[in-house]
Amino acid sequence: MAEPLLATDNLIKRFGALIATDHVSLSVDEGEIHALIGPNGAGKTTLIGQLTGELRPDSGHILFAGRDITAVHTHRRAGLGLARSFQITSIFLDMTALDNVALAVQIRQGHSFRFWRKTRKDGTLREPAAALLARVGLAPRADVAAADLSHGEHRQLEIAMALASEPRMLLLDEPMAGMGPDESKRMIALLQALKGKITILLVEHDMDAVFQLADRITVLVYGSAIATGSPEAIHANPEVRRAYLGDTEHKP
């Protein structure tokens, strides 16, 4: 069996008497979309913070591509190919969508921000940036100021900027939060197009989206991973239904 791209082993994180993650062991295979779901306060954000390096676990280990990264700093993890979209992007609202992505390409190439004015028309930056905008469905909006993009388009732009870093894995924290039905459909289509090309750990409350997108799902409740499996297995799991899904019907 192939080694997972990301694995955690018994991660524990406490905040005083609160155990935010309780012996969480998780594996994400290369190329899959793995969804992380659970009620508010389940520990999802705390787990993502440990994966990115923002939070240090009290005990346990994190492996990425076979390497123990438990003590590796956040920026080093990004350099290894582990990217959290909003963590590595900072949208400049007075710049166009194309300029924002070109800046992300420039950062990936290791250039300083202070050279930005000289390189805004550099084809080696703008051509890959244009390709990334097309990949996320924003090509027609390339010359629109980011301030004039919709909320859903901002999320598409964030993903384009994250992809500019050429990550092996994306951590997406509720990419459909605050979206209307049409924007959600576009985001689902975008993530489906990325499926198999890049590994994604998806935290999302929209269960319809989760069951459409995920290859596997892990359910967190009170800091513990109570189940991991295919959408069909999670949907049929009585413990999951009692703890989180309730009586709502979701068709995988």
CATH H level of the largest domain: which superfamily?
Answer: P-loop containing nucleotide triphosphate hydrolases
CATH second-level architecture of the largest domain: 3-Layer(aba) Sandwich
Q: What is the CATH topology classification name of the largest domain?
A: Rossmann fold
At the first level of CATH, the class of the largest domain is Alpha Beta
Count of distinct structural domains: 2
Q: Provide the structure class.
A: alpha/beta
Elements, N to C (H/E): EEEHEEHEHHHHHEHEHEEHH
Description:
The chain is of the alpha/beta class. 38% of the residues lie in helices and 23% in strands. It has a six-stranded mixed β-sheet, with helices on both faces. A four-stranded antiparallel β-sheet has the order 2-1-4-5, with helices on one face. The longest helix has 14 residues, at 181-194.
Distinctive features:
single chain; 252 residues; alpha/beta; Rossmann fold; six-stranded mixed beta sheet; four-stranded antiparallel beta sheet; 10 strands; 38% helix; globular
